[in-house]
Specification:
21 strands, 394 residues, binds dihydroflavine-adenine dinucleotide, alpha+beta, seven-stranded mixed beta sheet, seven-stranded antiparallel beta sheet, single chain, 31% helix, 25% strand
Protein backbone atom coordinates (compact mmCIF):
# COMPACT_ATOMS: atom_id res chain seq x y z
CA UNK A 1 0.00 0.00 0.00
CA UNK A 2 1.38 3.40 -0.99
CA UNK A 3 1.52 6.01 1.78
CA UNK A 4 -0.84 8.98 1.35
CA UNK A 5 -0.86 12.54 2.70
CA UNK A 6 -3.06 15.54 2.06
CA UNK A 7 -0.04 17.82 1.85
CA UNK A 8 3.65 17.19 1.33
CA UNK A 9 6.01 20.06 1.99
CA UNK A 10 9.57 19.66 0.73
CA UNK A 11 11.91 21.70 2.93
CA UNK A 12 11.79 21.96 6.73
CA UNK A 13 13.02 25.56 6.80
CA UNK A 14 11.21 28.73 7.84
CA UNK A 15 8.67 28.80 4.99
CA UNK A 16 8.03 25.04 4.88
CA UNK A 17 7.40 24.73 8.62
CA UNK A 18 5.09 27.76 8.68
CA UNK A 19 3.06 26.33 5.78
CA UNK A 20 2.90 22.87 7.40
CA UNK A 21 1.69 24.32 10.72
CA UNK A 22 -1.06 26.37 9.05
CA UNK A 23 -2.23 23.39 6.96
CA UNK A 24 -2.10 21.19 10.09
CA UNK A 25 -4.35 23.70 11.89
CA UNK A 26 -6.93 23.12 9.15
CA UNK A 27 -6.89 19.39 9.86
CA UNK A 28 -4.83 18.46 6.82
CA UNK A 29 -2.52 15.45 7.15
CA UNK A 30 0.87 17.03 6.46
CA UNK A 31 4.27 15.43 5.92
CA UNK A 32 7.41 17.59 5.69
CA UNK A 33 10.37 15.99 3.91
CA UNK A 34 13.94 17.29 4.08
CA UNK A 35 17.31 15.85 3.12
CA UNK A 36 19.23 17.61 5.91
CA UNK A 37 19.84 16.07 9.33
CA UNK A 38 17.79 18.61 11.31
CA UNK A 39 15.03 21.15 10.60
CA UNK A 40 15.54 24.91 10.48
CA UNK A 41 19.31 24.85 10.04
CA UNK A 42 19.43 28.32 8.50
CA UNK A 43 17.27 29.70 11.28
CA UNK A 44 19.82 28.34 13.76
CA UNK A 45 22.74 30.10 12.08
CA UNK A 46 20.84 33.33 11.36
CA UNK A 47 21.39 36.69 13.00
CA UNK A 48 24.70 35.53 14.50
CA UNK A 49 22.84 32.71 16.31
CA UNK A 50 20.09 35.04 17.59
CA UNK A 51 17.81 35.02 14.52
CA UNK A 52 16.63 38.39 13.31
CA UNK A 53 13.17 36.88 12.86
CA UNK A 54 11.32 39.89 11.43
CA UNK A 55 11.41 43.61 10.75
CA UNK A 56 8.42 45.50 12.06
CA UNK A 57 8.64 48.15 9.30
CA UNK A 58 8.41 45.55 6.51
CA UNK A 59 7.20 47.09 3.27
CA UNK A 60 7.17 45.78 -0.33
CA UNK A 61 10.00 48.24 -1.14
CA UNK A 62 12.32 46.11 1.01
CA UNK A 63 12.18 43.27 -1.51
CA UNK A 64 13.89 42.70 -4.85
CA UNK A 65 11.89 40.86 -7.50
CA UNK A 66 11.18 41.06 -11.21
CA UNK A 67 7.59 41.63 -10.09
CA UNK A 68 7.75 44.12 -7.19
CA UNK A 69 4.00 43.82 -6.58
CA UNK A 70 3.96 40.07 -6.06
CA UNK A 71 4.94 40.06 -2.37
CA UNK A 72 2.27 42.61 -1.34
CA UNK A 73 -0.67 40.28 -0.79
CA UNK A 74 1.07 37.73 1.45
CA UNK A 75 2.95 40.40 3.42
CA UNK A 76 -0.26 42.31 4.11
CA UNK A 77 -2.19 39.23 5.25
CA UNK A 78 0.50 37.77 7.54
CA UNK A 79 2.39 40.73 8.96
CA UNK A 80 5.42 41.02 11.25
CA UNK A 81 2.97 41.58 14.13
CA UNK A 82 1.34 38.20 13.48
CA UNK A 83 4.72 36.54 13.91
CA UNK A 84 5.50 38.67 16.98
CA UNK A 85 2.22 37.46 18.47
CA UNK A 86 3.36 33.84 17.97
CA UNK A 87 6.78 34.61 19.48
CA UNK A 88 5.14 36.22 22.51
CA UNK A 89 2.70 33.32 22.90
CA UNK A 90 5.73 31.05 23.30
CA UNK A 91 7.32 33.55 25.68
CA UNK A 92 10.43 33.81 23.52
CA UNK A 93 12.45 36.75 24.85
CA UNK A 94 13.38 39.24 22.11
CA UNK A 95 14.66 42.76 21.61
CA UNK A 96 14.73 45.46 18.94
CA UNK A 97 18.34 45.96 17.84
CA UNK A 98 18.15 48.79 15.34
CA UNK A 99 14.69 50.30 14.74
CA UNK A 100 12.35 47.52 13.55
CA UNK A 101 14.88 44.66 13.64
CA UNK A 102 13.75 42.00 16.14
CA UNK A 103 16.23 39.41 17.50
CA UNK A 104 15.94 36.63 20.09
CA UNK A 105 17.53 37.57 23.42
CA UNK A 106 18.88 34.06 23.96
CA UNK A 107 19.16 31.88 20.89
CA UNK A 108 17.76 31.17 17.44
CA UNK A 109 16.97 27.73 18.87
CA UNK A 110 13.94 29.37 20.51
CA UNK A 111 12.43 30.06 17.07
CA UNK A 112 13.09 26.52 15.80
CA UNK A 113 11.66 25.10 19.04
CA UNK A 114 8.54 27.25 18.64
CA UNK A 115 8.02 25.98 15.09
CA UNK A 116 8.58 22.36 16.13
CA UNK A 117 6.15 22.70 19.06
CA UNK A 118 3.49 24.15 16.76
CA UNK A 119 4.16 21.38 14.22
CA UNK A 120 3.68 18.74 16.90
CA UNK A 121 0.53 20.43 18.19
CA UNK A 122 -1.06 20.17 14.75
CA UNK A 123 0.19 16.62 14.03
CA UNK A 124 2.67 17.58 11.32
CA UNK A 125 5.08 14.73 10.52
CA UNK A 126 8.65 15.88 9.85
CA UNK A 127 10.97 13.40 8.15
CA UNK A 128 14.60 14.42 7.94
CA UNK A 129 17.40 12.71 6.00
CA UNK A 130 14.91 11.98 3.21
CA UNK A 131 16.06 12.14 -0.39
CA UNK A 132 13.49 12.80 -3.09
CA UNK A 133 14.34 10.89 -6.25
CA UNK A 134 11.42 11.98 -8.42
CA UNK A 135 8.12 13.83 -8.50
CA UNK A 136 5.35 13.06 -10.97
CA UNK A 137 1.79 14.28 -11.30
CA UNK A 138 -0.69 11.42 -11.33
CA UNK A 139 -4.45 11.06 -11.72
CA UNK A 140 -6.54 14.15 -11.19
CA UNK A 141 -4.05 16.67 -9.90
CA UNK A 142 -2.25 14.46 -7.40
CA UNK A 143 1.47 13.94 -7.02
CA UNK A 144 3.57 10.86 -6.47
CA UNK A 145 7.03 11.16 -4.92
CA UNK A 146 9.73 8.50 -4.90
CA UNK A 147 11.79 9.03 -1.78
CA UNK A 148 14.56 7.22 0.04
CA UNK A 149 11.79 5.95 2.38
CA UNK A 150 9.51 4.71 -0.40
CA UNK A 151 6.73 6.22 -2.49
CA UNK A 152 4.19 8.77 -1.17
CA UNK A 153 1.12 10.26 -2.84
CA UNK A 154 -0.33 13.63 -1.95
CA UNK A 155 -3.04 16.03 -2.99
CA UNK A 156 -1.02 19.24 -2.53
CA UNK A 157 2.71 19.58 -3.00
CA UNK A 158 4.62 22.57 -1.59
CA UNK A 159 8.18 23.30 -2.64
CA UNK A 160 10.01 25.19 0.12
CA UNK A 161 13.59 24.23 -0.63
CA UNK A 162 15.08 27.74 -0.30
CA UNK A 163 17.96 29.15 -2.33
CA UNK A 164 21.55 28.20 -3.07
CA UNK A 165 23.36 30.04 -0.31
CA UNK A 166 25.48 28.03 2.16
CA UNK A 167 25.54 24.64 0.40
CA UNK A 168 26.98 23.04 3.55
CA UNK A 169 23.63 23.78 5.28
CA UNK A 170 21.63 21.69 2.83
CA UNK A 171 21.02 24.27 0.10
CA UNK A 172 20.31 22.74 -3.31
CA UNK A 173 18.91 23.73 -6.72
CA UNK A 174 16.12 21.18 -6.26
CA UNK A 175 13.29 23.73 -6.22
CA UNK A 176 14.45 25.34 -9.46
CA UNK A 177 14.71 21.91 -11.10
CA UNK A 178 11.14 21.02 -10.07
CA UNK A 179 9.95 24.39 -11.40
CA UNK A 180 11.61 23.63 -14.75
CA UNK A 181 10.18 20.10 -14.75
CA UNK A 182 6.68 21.60 -14.58
CA UNK A 183 7.44 24.15 -17.29
CA UNK A 184 7.84 27.27 -15.09
CA UNK A 185 10.33 30.02 -15.84
CA UNK A 186 13.15 30.49 -13.37
CA UNK A 187 15.07 33.79 -13.27
CA UNK A 188 18.85 33.35 -13.22
CA UNK A 189 20.11 33.14 -9.65
CA UNK A 190 23.01 34.94 -7.98
CA UNK A 191 24.34 35.47 -4.48
CA UNK A 192 22.83 38.35 -2.47
CA UNK A 193 23.60 39.92 0.93
CA UNK A 194 27.18 38.83 0.40
CA UNK A 195 30.65 40.34 1.02
CA UNK A 196 32.48 41.77 -2.00
CA UNK A 197 36.04 40.88 -2.98
CA UNK A 198 38.48 43.42 -4.44
CA UNK A 199 41.01 43.39 -7.27
CA UNK A 200 44.59 42.66 -6.11
CA UNK A 201 45.85 46.26 -6.26
CA UNK A 202 42.93 47.57 -4.16
CA UNK A 203 43.21 44.63 -1.77
CA UNK A 204 46.90 45.34 -1.21
CA UNK A 205 46.28 49.05 -0.71
CA UNK A 206 43.57 48.41 1.89
CA UNK A 207 45.04 45.38 3.67
CA UNK A 208 46.07 47.39 6.77
CA UNK A 209 42.44 48.35 7.31
CA UNK A 210 41.32 44.74 7.90
CA UNK A 211 38.90 44.64 10.81
CA UNK A 212 38.04 48.36 10.75
CA UNK A 213 34.38 49.39 10.46
CA UNK A 214 33.29 52.82 9.23
CA UNK A 215 29.83 54.30 8.96
CA UNK A 216 29.27 55.16 5.30
CA UNK A 217 26.78 55.81 2.57
CA UNK A 218 27.31 53.28 -0.20
CA UNK A 219 25.78 54.05 -3.59
CA UNK A 220 25.33 51.78 -6.58
CA UNK A 221 23.65 52.78 -9.82
CA UNK A 222 20.31 51.61 -8.38
CA UNK A 223 20.34 51.96 -4.59
CA UNK A 224 21.99 53.61 -1.64
CA UNK A 225 22.50 52.39 1.95
CA UNK A 226 23.66 54.27 5.05
CA UNK A 227 25.29 51.82 7.47
CA UNK A 228 28.67 50.37 8.44
CA UNK A 229 31.17 48.94 6.00
CA UNK A 230 33.85 46.56 7.24
CA UNK A 231 37.27 46.20 5.61
CA UNK A 232 38.23 42.50 5.43
CA UNK A 233 41.32 40.66 4.20
CA UNK A 234 39.37 39.68 1.08
CA UNK A 235 37.62 42.98 0.42
CA UNK A 236 34.56 44.72 1.86
CA UNK A 237 31.78 43.51 4.11
CA UNK A 238 29.49 44.93 6.81
CA UNK A 239 25.78 45.71 6.55
CA UNK A 240 26.02 48.50 3.95
CA UNK A 241 28.10 46.29 1.64
CA UNK A 242 25.85 43.24 2.13
CA UNK A 243 22.83 45.40 1.26
CA UNK A 244 24.38 46.95 -1.84
CA UNK A 245 25.70 43.56 -3.03
CA UNK A 246 22.11 42.59 -3.90
CA UNK A 247 22.00 45.54 -6.32
CA UNK A 248 25.55 45.24 -7.70
CA UNK A 249 26.50 43.69 -11.04
CA UNK A 250 30.05 42.66 -11.99
CA UNK A 251 32.02 45.50 -13.57
CA UNK A 252 29.97 48.24 -11.92
CA UNK A 253 31.54 50.75 -9.56
CA UNK A 254 30.36 51.71 -6.08
CA UNK A 255 30.56 55.22 -4.75
CA UNK A 256 31.25 55.36 -1.01
CA UNK A 257 30.99 58.39 1.25
CA UNK A 258 33.26 57.68 4.22
CA UNK A 259 31.98 60.73 6.11
CA UNK A 260 28.25 60.82 5.35
CA UNK A 261 27.19 62.83 8.38
CA UNK A 262 28.84 66.07 7.27
CA UNK A 263 29.57 68.22 4.28
CA UNK A 264 33.32 67.54 4.33
CA UNK A 265 34.40 70.53 2.26
CA UNK A 266 32.47 72.94 4.50
CA UNK A 267 33.95 71.21 7.54
CA UNK A 268 37.51 71.56 6.20
CA UNK A 269 37.03 75.25 5.37
CA UNK A 270 35.69 75.88 8.88
CA UNK A 271 38.64 74.04 10.47
CA UNK A 272 41.05 75.97 8.25
CA UNK A 273 39.73 79.15 9.84
CA UNK A 274 39.49 77.87 13.41
CA UNK A 275 42.55 75.58 13.57
CA UNK A 276 45.01 76.78 10.89
CA UNK A 277 48.10 75.32 12.64
CA UNK A 278 46.79 71.75 12.75
CA UNK A 279 47.75 69.28 10.02
CA UNK A 280 45.18 68.06 7.58
CA UNK A 281 45.78 64.57 8.92
CA UNK A 282 44.95 65.62 12.48
CA UNK A 283 41.73 67.27 11.37
CA UNK A 284 40.66 64.14 9.49
CA UNK A 285 41.64 61.70 12.27
CA UNK A 286 39.15 63.49 14.53
CA UNK A 287 36.49 62.07 12.21
CA UNK A 288 37.89 58.74 10.97
CA UNK A 289 40.21 55.96 12.24
CA UNK A 290 43.89 56.91 11.78
CA UNK A 291 44.59 53.96 9.48
CA UNK A 292 41.77 54.98 7.17
CA UNK A 293 43.08 58.55 6.95
CA UNK A 294 46.65 57.34 6.29
CA UNK A 295 45.47 54.96 3.56
CA UNK A 296 43.23 57.41 1.74
CA UNK A 297 44.98 60.77 2.21
CA UNK A 298 47.27 61.54 -0.71
CA UNK A 299 51.00 61.72 0.25
CA UNK A 300 51.26 65.32 -0.92
CA UNK A 301 48.89 66.43 1.87
CA UNK A 302 50.10 64.31 4.79
CA UNK A 303 52.57 66.83 6.26
CA UNK A 304 50.62 69.95 5.33
CA UNK A 305 49.02 72.32 7.82
CA UNK A 306 45.53 73.63 7.29
CA UNK A 307 46.69 77.22 6.59
CA UNK A 308 48.88 75.94 3.74
CA UNK A 309 45.99 74.32 1.93
CA UNK A 310 44.47 75.91 -1.15
CA UNK A 311 40.69 75.64 -1.71
CA UNK A 312 41.20 73.29 -4.67
CA UNK A 313 43.27 70.98 -2.46
CA UNK A 314 40.58 70.91 0.24
CA UNK A 315 38.09 70.10 -2.49
CA UNK A 316 40.31 67.27 -3.67
CA UNK A 317 40.47 65.82 -0.14
CA UNK A 318 36.71 66.17 0.33
CA UNK A 319 36.18 64.25 -2.90
CA UNK A 320 38.61 61.49 -1.87
CA UNK A 321 36.76 60.77 1.37
CA UNK A 322 33.19 61.65 0.43
CA UNK A 323 33.18 60.11 -3.01
CA UNK A 324 35.43 57.06 -3.01
CA UNK A 325 34.89 55.16 -6.23
CA UNK A 326 35.71 51.47 -6.15
CA UNK A 327 35.07 48.68 -8.65
CA UNK A 328 34.75 45.40 -6.71
CA UNK A 329 36.17 42.26 -8.27
CA UNK A 330 33.33 39.85 -7.42
CA UNK A 331 31.09 38.66 -4.61
CA UNK A 332 32.20 35.92 -2.23
CA UNK A 333 29.46 33.79 -3.82
CA UNK A 334 27.02 31.31 -2.33
CA UNK A 335 29.59 30.08 0.20
CA UNK A 336 28.94 33.11 2.44
CA UNK A 337 25.82 34.72 0.91
CA UNK A 338 22.76 35.10 3.13
CA UNK A 339 20.32 34.85 0.25
CA UNK A 340 19.83 33.94 -3.40
CA UNK A 341 18.46 36.49 -5.83
CA UNK A 342 16.29 35.33 -8.71
CA UNK A 343 14.37 32.06 -8.69
CA UNK A 344 10.90 30.86 -9.61
CA UNK A 345 9.14 33.49 -11.71
CA UNK A 346 6.36 35.19 -9.74
CA UNK A 347 4.36 35.41 -12.96
CA UNK A 348 3.83 31.65 -12.75
CA UNK A 349 2.28 31.85 -9.26
CA UNK A 350 -0.84 33.22 -7.57
CA UNK A 351 0.28 36.03 -5.26
CA UNK A 352 -2.60 35.15 -2.92
CA UNK A 353 -1.91 31.43 -2.49
CA UNK A 354 1.53 30.76 -4.07
CA UNK A 355 -0.12 28.09 -6.23
CA UNK A 356 1.30 27.49 -9.69
CA UNK A 357 -1.26 28.93 -12.09
CA UNK A 358 -0.72 26.20 -14.69
CA UNK A 359 -0.38 23.23 -12.28
CA UNK A 360 -3.19 22.98 -9.71
CA UNK A 361 -2.10 21.90 -6.19
CA UNK A 362 1.58 22.69 -6.74
CA UNK A 363 2.98 25.57 -4.63
CA UNK A 364 6.31 27.41 -4.27
CA UNK A 365 7.06 29.42 -1.11
CA UNK A 366 9.96 31.19 0.59
CA UNK A 367 13.35 31.96 -0.87
CA UNK A 368 13.02 29.63 -3.89
CA UNK A 369 10.62 32.23 -5.32
CA UNK A 370 12.03 35.34 -7.03
CA UNK A 371 11.46 37.53 -3.95
CA UNK A 372 14.56 38.57 -1.99
CA UNK A 373 14.51 40.80 1.05
CA UNK A 374 16.98 43.35 2.33
CA UNK A 375 19.11 42.61 5.36
CA UNK A 376 17.22 43.09 8.61
CA UNK A 377 14.67 40.29 9.10
CA UNK A 378 12.82 40.80 5.82
CA UNK A 379 13.77 37.41 4.39
CA UNK A 380 12.28 35.52 7.31
CA UNK A 381 9.17 37.69 7.11
CA UNK A 382 8.78 36.66 3.47
CA UNK A 383 9.23 33.00 4.49
CA UNK A 384 6.55 33.33 7.23
CA UNK A 385 4.11 35.31 5.02
CA UNK A 386 4.40 33.17 1.88
CA UNK A 387 4.30 29.96 3.97
CA UNK A 388 1.24 31.19 5.81
CA UNK A 389 -0.52 32.15 2.55
CA UNK A 390 -0.08 28.67 1.07
CA UNK A 391 -0.95 27.06 4.40
CA UNK A 392 -4.49 28.51 4.22
CA UNK A 393 -5.36 26.65 1.02
CA UNK A 394 -3.21 23.53 0.52
P1 LIG B 1 15.51 27.51 3.97
O1 LIG B 1 16.81 27.56 3.29
O2 LIG B 1 15.40 28.04 5.34
O3 LIG B 1 14.99 26.01 4.02
C1 LIG B 1 15.07 25.15 2.90
C2 LIG B 1 15.04 23.73 3.40
O4 LIG B 1 14.95 22.88 2.24
C3 LIG B 1 16.31 23.32 4.13
O5 LIG B 1 15.95 22.72 5.36
C4 LIG B 1 17.00 22.35 3.19
O6 LIG B 1 17.70 21.32 3.86
C5 LIG B 1 15.82 21.79 2.42
N1 LIG B 1 16.20 21.29 1.09
C6 LIG B 1 16.92 21.91 0.14
N2 LIG B 1 17.07 21.10 -0.92
C7 LIG B 1 16.42 19.95 -0.64
C8 LIG B 1 16.25 18.74 -1.36
N3 LIG B 1 16.78 18.55 -2.55
N4 LIG B 1 15.53 17.75 -0.76
C9 LIG B 1 15.01 17.92 0.48
N5 LIG B 1 15.15 19.04 1.19
C10 LIG B 1 15.85 20.05 0.64
N6 LIG B 1 17.09 36.17 7.15
C11 LIG B 1 16.51 36.99 8.05
O7 LIG B 1 15.39 37.44 7.80
N7 LIG B 1 17.13 37.30 9.23
C12 LIG B 1 18.37 36.82 9.55
O8 LIG B 1 18.88 37.07 10.66
C13 LIG B 1 19.03 36.02 8.59
N8 LIG B 1 20.29 35.58 8.82
C14 LIG B 1 20.89 34.71 7.92
C15 LIG B 1 22.19 34.26 8.18
C16 LIG B 1 22.79 33.38 7.30
C17 LIG B 1 24.19 32.95 7.55
C18 LIG B 1 22.07 32.91 6.17
C19 LIG B 1 22.68 31.94 5.23
C20 LIG B 1 20.79 33.39 5.91
C21 LIG B 1 20.18 34.30 6.77
N9 LIG B 1 18.93 34.81 6.51
C22 LIG B 1 18.34 35.66 7.41
C23 LIG B 1 18.15 34.39 5.32
C24 LIG B 1 17.13 33.32 5.73
O9 LIG B 1 17.81 32.31 6.46
C25 LIG B 1 16.45 32.69 4.51
O10 LIG B 1 15.95 33.68 3.66
C26 LIG B 1 15.31 31.77 4.95
O11 LIG B 1 15.85 30.74 5.74
C27 LIG B 1 14.60 31.18 3.74
O12 LIG B 1 13.64 30.27 4.22
P2 LIG B 1 13.17 29.05 3.31
O13 LIG B 1 12.28 28.24 4.19
O14 LIG B 1 12.66 29.54 2.02
O15 LIG B 1 14.49 28.24 2.99
Amino acid sequence: MIEKADVIVIGAGAAGLMCAIEAGKRGRRVIVLDHANKPGKKILMSGGGRCNFTHTHTRPEHFISHNPHFCKSALSRYTPWNFVELVERYRVAYHEKTPGQLFCDNSAKDIVQLLLSESQKYNVTIRMLTKIASIASVGSNEFKLQTSYGAIRCHSLVIATGGLSIPTMGASPFGYQIASQFGLSVWPTRAGLVPLTLHTTDKERLIDLTGIAVQCVVNSQRQSFHDNILFTHRGLSGPAILQISSYWNPGESLNINLLPNMDLLTHLIERQNSEPRKTVKTILTAQLPKNVVETFLSHQYVQKHMHEMRRAELKDIAETFASWRIVPNATEGYRTAEVTLGGVDCGALSSKTMEVLSVPNLYFIGEVVDVTGWLGGFNFQWAWSSGWAAGQVV
